[in-house]
Amino acid sequence: MHVLLVEDDPDIAGPLARGLARYGHEVRWVVTGQDALLAGDDPEMVLLDLGLPDMDGLDVCRRLRARSEVSLIMISARGSETDKVVGLELGADDYVVKPFTVRELIARMRAVQRRRLAPPPAAPAVPPTPPGVVIGLPRRSRDRYGRLSIDRLAHRTYLDDREIPLSPKEYALLVYLADRLDTLATREDIMAAVWDSNWFGPTKTLDTHVYGLRHKLGDAVCIEAVRGVGFRLAVKPGAPARQPAS
After folding, report:
1. How many CB atoms are located within 10 Å of the residue 92 CB?
2. pLDDT(201) > 70
3. pTM score
4. 99, 119, 186, 208: which has the fewest C-beta neighbours closer than 10 Å?
């Protein structure tokens, strides 16, 4: 791949660029956020440090995402859960905390590209309409979970009939857990279903997305964690289900 490496520390960038080159990647190295925004040649992958000398890497990510869907992995010494959540919410495909090995980074790059290049699932076959039968438009309905409701046709989520914006992965994770209400789902099964059946590496991104859902949905539902095993979605007791929206 053509990789744009945005890193101001030469002690990190030099060995990293050489390591990527050994795996066959063509690397262009820039040291500032402005250089990253002005870089041409349409890179296939951006490796973006957050601690840049002229601007925060999060701002670089936001501006890149506004104009491009290029694969982007953040590489940073900032390892807090909040930093990871913000980075992923701004559009990063993955978040790697320093220090890391070239082999780990290569594996994450490959996983990101697999997910991006995977063909969309085939649409289900629609049986032909019998002669003389008129098909009307179905009335849109939502699946209700106490105060929470999910409109699966529109891929939208509502809390007390107010739409809650979720990222695509947060929505997919919520639907997966909602389909298994009060049932423990293992981390491996969730990663295979929501991310990629060929997922390789740690599952920390799952914890980050669970944190995001908890923050956005508040006390309407409970996403229970079973340490070392997985997660279970439960509707909070005493949360009455509302009538379907018209």
Report:
1. 25
2. no
3. 0.51
4. 119
